[in-house]
Design a protein that fits this description.
The complex is a heterodimer of chains A (about 300) and B (about 425).
Chain A: H1 2-45, E1 48-49, E2 59-60, H2 64-69, H3 73-105, H4 109-124, H5 127-138, H6 144-151, H7 168-180, H8 182-193, H9 197-205, H10 210-221, H11 223-238, H12 242-247, H13 259-269, H14 273-301
Antiparallel strand pairs in A: 1-2
Helix pairs in contact in A: 3-7, 3-8, 3-11, 4-8, 9-10, 11-14, 13-14
Chain B: H1 2-22, E1 28-34, H2 43-56, E2 60-66, H3 72-81, E3 88-91, H4 93-101, H5 115-120, H6 123-129, E4 139-145, E5 147-151, H7 152-157, H8 173-184, E6 191-194, H9 201-211, H10 229-240, E7 244-247, H11 252-260, E8 266-270, H12 272-275, E9 292-295, E10 308-315, H13 321-335, H14 340-347, E11 350-351, E12 355-356, E13 359-360, H15 369-374, H16 391-406, H17 411-427
Classes of the chains: A mainly alpha (about 300), B alpha/beta (about 425).
């Protein structure tokens, strides 16, 4: 009797396992076809001199593309710009999101929701539409920024925001910032709402200041959310492409080139697939390394 | 009962499938991808041409996809790599001959060129459609000479209209300099050397090459010569000329918009298509109603040399002899038959030949004042040099060079670097 019950349990477990894998199958299929296979091909092709052409043959060149990469001034410039974007965007996005979330969490639910919608709007708006609006605001001839600054007497001559190497990258970072804060704010509002209120009340009863309550009670509890936001924002910042392609094409004077844009340019304009893939591999390694470090740091603080 | 019903429905579907296709079993369907070449970017106009073709050629069906210059090349390249290239494509020699043809993706159309074609089609156009090995990857339909435009009312307001010849549409370099100085006293944005990229590069090349008689490539189209003293002198002039601003934030299309809006007094990215545009006002008028006059680029030479635009059809070799034959039939119908007049008129450009299948194409725009006036510029059509290998990379390097000059870099160093990059691409 016990044996047959055990056999029945095993059969049920097996059925559930099979069902589970069957449910996973569609996702697994897409993951293998659209992530793992392209990733493998990217790494594989990066060791070849692979170009467009019906009669061209890919030639194995080992680490030739990688050696060329680190002697390519445009790539190094693009890497530097990408690092600037990450270094500036990630902390500011996280800090601003946390500040906004802290400020709106304790408001009336209607107001909290309203602010969440306002900050989330740029996220759900198409990047082309967002770019068109920002391009209009930055316009050298009739843009609203020049109009306001001239009206306020701050400048006496129009600034070519996207056409001047001194400002272009910062203009891109500002747009990236506005399109990046929406999701972190929503996540932080949710995380702050889940903080154990009994601990907060106990600390307040013990005489803790609001700052102490935040750093000693709330901050540790929202650390997993912070870690997720940092990793996601870092990856998004590293992959900044659409804004560059639609606004500046990497100019002026390569001042807004990013690694992602340079990959696109190399592969689709110069048709150097092997070289472009080598850049992709380097970018992947950098993102993986940084994400691992962030996870490690996050776990050690947890 | 349910099984019987299912069986009946299945049989119906199977019969419908085979029965339906049987009626068109002999049809060949070919795909045409077209860049926005005048009305060839407008589905209403193209649908009519395709319907006429299909009526005249039963058994051939044509599907059309419309490309934009901003991302059209990316779409085509992706399609090529995915073995999904269109059967037919409409564009110019710089893409069909110098790019996809040179890379081995196109069908050689040399056999389409009969003796009558060679006699009728302009030599400069023929030269652009063939590569050095004698293969033709484009069968041409229409052409134009790219020019510049001025706001006549603004010129009149500062007395600069006396510096231009409104009859021949020409002016000299000195007259251009004087006109810019007069206009700059009233407007800090007389003209823009747009250089953000994405098309319209012919305008920036033409103003620089024409001012002091420089050339962009050598006569054999094997080498870029933009670092010649004439070109350097022209770039230095433009960089130092008050009112002419190098602007890396706008492209050719945006320069046209700024000119139409009355912000700029001149546009370097212009042709008959722009002159005929009626989006915001009647053809030949700015948004505010000022008169737009097409002008040749100013030069100190005997006559200007305008960049040509030559557009026609190419066939991708997708491995189907049947489709290639159908595509050739399409090309001959559109570009060398009684229907060619309509196909050319649809483009709003000019025919590359005087007659097609006995039909006179020189009079297709009779009665159209704007087109008639524009024909005065056509004799200034210069060498079609956009067939140098490595054209795509050279074009990007050109924008970068202009951006550097605009930001105050040494002109000689910037053009030397451009030529080194472009010639390296040409040599690959």
């Amino acid at each position: 009797m016990r044996k047959s019950r055990s056999g029945l349990n095993q059969s049920l477990v097996r059925q559930e396992t099979i069902a589970g894998y069957l449910f996973l199958l569609p996702s697994l299929f897409f993951f293998l076809v659209f992530v793992v296979y392209p990733m493998f091909m990217c790494i594989y092709t990066s060791f070849f001199d692979s170009n467009m052409g019906k009669n061209t043959v890919d030639t194995f060149i080992g680490f030739g593309n990688y050696k060329e990469l680190f002697q390519d001034k445009i790539f190094l410039g693009a890497l530097r710009n990408t690092v600037v974007i990450v270094v500036v965007a990630v902390p500011t996005v996280c800090a601003f999101s946390l500040w906004v979330a802290s400020a709106i969490t304790d408001m009336k639910p209607v107001l909290t929701s309203a602010f969440r919608v306002i900050f989330y709007l740029p996220v759900v708006t198409g990047s082309v539409a967002v770019t068109v609006v920002w391009k209009w605001m930055y316009n050298n001839y009739y843009g609203i920024f020049n109009y306001l600054l001239k009206s306020a007497g701050v400048i006496d001559k129009n600034i070519n925001w996207l056409g001047d190497a001194r400002y272009a990258l910062w203009c891109i970072i500002l747009i990236l910032f506005t399109t990046s804060v929406g999701q972190p704010i929503v996540l932080y509002v949710s995380a702050l709402g889940n903080v154990d209120q009994s601990l907060v009340e106990a600390a307040e009863v013990d005489g803790a200041t609001p700052m102490q309550v935040f750093w000693k009670i709330k901050w540790p509890q929202i650390m997993p959310t912070t870690l997720y936001i940092v990793v996601i924002t870092t990856i998004n910042s590293f992959q900044c492409f659409a804004l560059i392609q639609l606004l500046t094409s990497g100019g002026p004077n390569h001042s807004t080139d990013t690694v992602m844009y340079y990959i696109y340019y190399t592969a689709f304009k110069l048709y150097r697939y092997g070289y472009g893939n080598a850049m992709g591999v380097v970018l992947m390694l950098i993102i993986a390394l940084l994400s691992a470090v962030q996870f490690k740091l996050g776990q050690s603080q947890d | 009962m349910k099984k019987l019903l299912a069986l009946v429905l299945t049989l119906c579907m199977v019969f419908a499938l085979f029965g339906g296709s049987a009626a068109y079993a002999d049809d060949v369907t070919i795909s045409l991808w077209t860049y926005p070449i005048g009305g060839w970017g407008n589905s209403e106009i193209v649908d009519k041409l395709i319907a006429d073709f299909e009526a005249a050629n039963p058994g051939i069906k044509v599907t059309v996809e419309y490309l934009a210059y901003a991302d059209g090349d990316d779409k085509v390249n992706t399609a090529i790599e995915g073995n999904a290239a269109p059967d037919l494509i409409m564009e110019g020699p710089e893409r069909l001959v110098a790019n996809w043809g040179a890379k081995g993706y196109m069908v050689d159309l040399a056999e389409l060129w009969d003796d009558a074609d060679k006699a009728e089609i302009l030599p400069v156009v023929q030269a652009a459609c063939f590569n050095k090995a004698g293969a033709s990857y484009e069968y041409p339909l229409c052409m134009t000479a790219h020019c510049m435009a001025i706001n006549l009312n603004r010129f009149q307001a500062v007395g600069a209209d006396k510096l231009i010849d409104l009859d021949t549409h020409t002016w000299t370099t000195d007259q251009f300099i004087e006109a810019v100085k007069l206009l700059a006293a009233e407007n800090p944005n007389v003209a823009a050397i747009y250089c953000s990229g994405q098309g319209g590069d012919q305008g920036t090349r033409a103003i620089i090459n024409n001012l002091y008689g420089g050339t962009f490539t050598d006569a054999d189209h094997t080498k870029y010569t933009a670092d010649s003293p004439e070109n350097i002198k022209a770039l230095e002039l433009l960089a130092g000329l008050e009112g002419v601003n190098f602007d890396p934030a706008i492209n050719g299309g945006e320069e046209i918009n700024l000119f139409r809006q009355g912000i700029l007094d001149m546009a370097f990215c212009w042709n008959i298509g722009a002159q005929l545009n009626t989006d915001n006002n009647d053809a030949g008028l700015t948004n505010d109603g000022d008169t737009i006059v097409c002008m040749a680029f100013p030069t100190d030479q005997a006559q200007p040399a305008l960049c040509g635009g030559i557009w026609g059809f190419g066939i991708f070799d997708n491995g189907s002899a049947e489709k290639i034959e159908a595509a050739k039939t399409f090309i001959k119908y559109m570009a060398d038959s009684a229907a060619t007049a309509d196909a050319v008129k649809a483009s709003t450009y000019f025919a590359v030949r005087d007659t097609a299948d006995g039909v006179d194409l020189t009079k297709i725009y009779d009665g159209n004042e704007i087109m008639s006036e524009y024909t005065k510029l056509m004799p200034f059509l210069g060498d079609y040099y956009q067939v140098v290998p490595g054209w795509a990379e050279a074009r990007t390097a050109w924008w970068n060079m202009l951006q550097k000059v605009g930001s105050g870099a040494d002109v000689t160093e910037a053009v030397t670097e451009f030529c080194a990059t472009a010639n390296a691409a040409a040599g690959k």
